[in-house]
Amino acid sequence: MAQLYIAxxxxxxxxxIAGICIGSFLNVLIYRIPEKLNFAKGRSFCPACGHELKxxxxxxxxxxLFLRGKCRYCGNKISFRYPLIELLGGALxxxxxxxxxxxxxxxVVFACSCILLVxxxxxxxxxxxxxxxxxxxxxLALVSLIWFRNITWLSALIGMAEISLPMVLMNLIxxxxxxxxxxxxxxxxxxxLGWQQMLAAALIALITGGIYGAYLLIAKKKGKKDHFAFGxxxxxxxxxxxxxxxxxxxxxxxxxxLA
Length: 259
Known about the structure:
Layout: H1 2-35, H2 62-66, H3 81-100, H4 104-126, H5 131-147, H6 153-162, H7 164-173, H8 180-218, H9 231-255
Helix pairs in contact: 1-3, 1-4, 3-4, 4-5, 4-9, 5-8, 6-8, 7-8, 8-9
């Protein structure tokens, strides 16, 4: 029994470390995609001084702690967001394996979660959602539909339209109610989640986004006509739905004895 626990600890430890390393790459995507820099080539560098970083400067989380959150070469502060995203990558990897086991479905869910994480932070920085990332989610949605067959095509097509189409109609009534990236994100992920789980994701996004919007108004950081990035809240809702959408829906239905 002890050997079994050790084996599990080794496996989960490897998954965690791999996820943290992938999280480090997500930081590269978040910085380079909006800047239209090649994220597949070129050495990492300090955004402040431009100095090329050495391998010792790039150990996920550890380098940040060792350098006390400062660049070795210019002394400028390194954003805490870098190790945060690395740790989130590790957490998402662990959650994927714990929820779906060491399967291809876990890999697809993890890949989707990583893309959503990148989308969230790029939207925070730029108020835009890159089309290439939405296209990647759409391709993963098709892979999930064809390979895993967790939902029917009808449910997927309804999920694709049920949130994105009302967003389009809302934009016709109130100009710029939602960004085009938000609409495309809902369409791509609705295809993957199906109509029930997409509804759950949208509800989570509306609740969390509404709370944040209310905070901005109360704190007078935004006016009634000002916009804020909604992509992070959509990403949060979709990630929760990917891991626990079915559980949330069943729990809700059981309250009314409908499950």
